[in-house]
Write a structure and sequence with these properties.
The structure holds two protein chains of two kinds. Chain A contains twelve helices and no strands. Chain A has one domain (65-285): MetI-like (MetI-like fold, Orthogonal Bundle). Helix content of chain A is 71%, strand content 0%. Chain B is mostly helical. Chain B has two domains: 2-59, no CATH class; 71-275, MetI-like (MetI-like fold), CATH 1.10.3720.10. Chain B contains 14 helices and no strands. Chain B has helices spanning 2-27, 31-38, 61-68, 71-104, 110-122, 125-138, 146-153, 157-166, 171-179, 184-195, 197-212, 216-221, 242-262, 264-275. Chain B is globular and about 75 Å long. The chains are: A mainly alpha, B mainly alpha. Chains A and B meet through helix 1, helix 3, helix 4, helix 5 and helix 6 of A and helix 1, helix 4, helix 5, helix 6 and helix 7 of B.
């Protein structure tokens, strides 16, 4: 999309694009590029920021128990919640698409969680999952004394909160992907005697693959924001199972441990960029025809 | 099949409607009823919560207390305003022309800059908080509203959404204007902005939700709780203010939900634009 028919300006006007871009580019350079480079530098130097220490900071971070636990929890969280979110939101998008009438109500409602401030939704979730909360009263007595926010169940509550928040977002993305599929393909398949399931398996699924990669990327990025719910539900030191990277960074931040934070940030940043590149390559290899069309 | 679809969609929507209704209902309850029903939340009692979707004796008292007797609520509301409005205005002034440069012109360095923007966009806050801290510290901006405003203004996300929209403007239109002698700024203001305004709305709407919900940034960069925004009011409420919790939640939630209904078209468009990748 970067190529195409851009305006090629005559020489005396060559400066204009830079003029338009300058405010943004200068700001992004000062507030993002340069500080990011500085972080990379800090990750290889000592506390004074002068002496070169090689990979020492990385060694410290990668042998730090809290870091490994937070990393493990974050990866586990993404690994569990993203497939659930993807499947549920795809199912929802398909269900709404095939609905006769009242599509609008469902679409509008599913976007509410995006708009509802996290502080408000977590207030309800607290009422719901509290030891003496609503959920325990609906369950049979056998389970009813469990504090869901303590112990391993906290993990699943966070997964639930994430899916609740993002299902509308992903549903919109899937709908856009589905809209991009040429309807005549389905008609042709029907003429050839394909049923609903075959159509889905051999038309929808392959054509949605590139879109899937994009949705995974965005879902991962939104997944990193789950700290908000975890923090508001469980505070600074939550159950071990939901101790995420953001908790760790917030704690390191209090101690102003710039070396550890820098090495940690570069490691995570590198991981995210690598993951996005892989998915991006996956999307491109799997075909360009399914690219999302905007309507 | 149709019936099953409907039933499952309605169930899903109930999971969204019920929390909203429960919170709204509680906002019309008296302090006594709130403590009766939801006392455990404020460590007031150990009676199990008794959820209700209707208040027994509806009253506006909680709203009055919030509006007339909760100065800290007003401080935080004002803080939120000071931290959100300048960001949106700044994004309009900075991101829109930047996006126009990327989508309307071919120029040296374009691909490289766009790649930089991409990388910055995908980095989560865990990664950028260190760099944000370093830059804010060196400008002595920590513990000021600007610590949230400046990184917000130069966020790259709105640029991408606006780029997608500007790219839909037919090149013939800008070329024709150019042949007629229109200057580049004139073209941006009279063709780019009017035809790309839905993208601009989308970007600003998504930014609004993002900034209004800021939690990591204020707790990291604002030590002074006097500067904290409304998004942190509910989590830090004292039991003494229990009466206002749900009214505050309603005051925060209702405008956002209305905005999402009124701006649904733009919200949808913004989400779809964020999903289109090269």
């Amino acid at each position: 999309m970067l190529s195409g028919h851009k305006s090629i300006l005559p020489n005396k006007k060559k400066l204009y694009p830079y003029l338009f871009l300058a405010p943004s580019l200068i700001g992004v350079t000062i507030f993002s590029f340069l500080p990011l480079l500085d972080v990379v530098r800090h990750s290889f130097t000592d506390a004074m920021g002068n002496a070169w220490t090689g990979f020492n900071n990385y060694r410290i971070v990668w042998t730090n128990q809290a870091f490994l636990m937070a990393l493990n929890n974050t990866v586990k969280f993404l690994g569990v919640s993203i497939p659930i979110l993807l499947l549920l939101s795809l199912g929802t998008a398909l269900a709404i698409n095939h609905l006769k009438g009242s599509q609008r109500v469902f679409r509008t409602t599913l976007l509410f969680p995006l708009a509802i401030p996290v502080a408000c939704s977590t207030l309800f979730f607290k009422l719901f999952f509290h030891e003496l909360g609503w959920l325990n009263q609906m369950l049979p007595d056998f389970y009813a004394d469990k504090d869901w926010l303590k112990g391993g169940s906290a993990f699943f509550i966070i997964v639930f909160c994430y899916v609740w928040k993002n299902i509308g977002y992903d549903m919109i993305l899937w709908s856009a992907g589905l809209k991009g599929i040429d309807i005549s393909l389905y008609e042709a398949a029907r003429v050839d005697g394909a049923g609903r399931i075959e159509s889905f398996r051999y038309i929808t699924m392959p054509l949605l693959k590139p879109v899937t990669c994009t949705i995974i990327i965005l879902s991962v990025l939104n997944g990193f924001k789950i700290f908000r719910e975890a923090y508001l539900l469980a505070g600074d030191y939550p159950d071990k199972s939901i101790y995420m990277l953001q908790h760790l960074f917030t704690n390191w931040f209090v101690a102003l441990d710039i070396q550890k934070m820098s090495a940690g940030a570069v490691s995570i940043g590198g991981g995210v960029v690598a993951m996005v590149l892989l998915l991006q390559m996956g999307a491109n290899r799997r075909g360009r025809n399914g690219k999302m069309e905007k309507n | 099949m149709e019936r099953w679809r409907r039933i499952s969609l309605i169930t899903l929507c109930l999971l969204i409607w019920v929390p909203m209704i429960v919170l709204l209902a509680a906002s019309f309850m008296s302090l006594a009823e709130i403590l009766d029903r939801y006392g455990v939340l404020f460590s007031h009692s150990d009676v199990p919560v008794q959820v209700s979707i209707l208040p027994t004796y509806p009253t506006l008292r909680a709203y009055f207390e919030l509006l007339f007797d909760s100065p800290e609520f007003f401080t935080m509301f004002w803080n939120s305003f000071l931290q959100v409005a300048p960001v949106l205005l700044g994004q309009l002034i900075v991101a829109a022309p930047g996006a126009w440069a990327f989508s309307a012109y071919e120029f040296k360095g374009r691909k490289l800059f766009f790649l930089f923007y991409h990388i910055v966009m995908i980095l989560p806050f865990q990664v950028t908080m260190v760099s944000d801290y370093l830059v804010l510290d060196s400008f002595h901006l920590l513990n000021t509203h600007l610590a949230l405003v400046l990184p917000g203004i130069f966020s790259v996300f709105p640029v991408f959404i606006m780029v997608k929209n500007f790219e839909n403007i037919p090149k013939a239109l800008t070329e024709a204007a150019r042949i007629d002698g229109a200057g580049e700024f004139y073209i941006f203001l009279h063709i780019g902005i009017p035809l790309g305004k839905s993208g601009i709305f989308s970007a600003l709407l998504l930014s609004f939700f993002e900034q209004w919900n800021a939690i990591e940034q204020p707790i990291t960069f604002l030590k002074d709780k006097q500067l904290w925004p409304l998004s942190l009011y509910l989590p830090n409420i004292t039991p003494a203010k229990a009466a206002t919790v749900f009214a505050a939640a309603a005051v925060m939630m209702v405008p956002c939900v209305m905005l999402s209904v009124l701006g649904e078209e733009y919200l949808t468009e913004g989400i779809v634009s964020s999903g289109i990748k090269e």
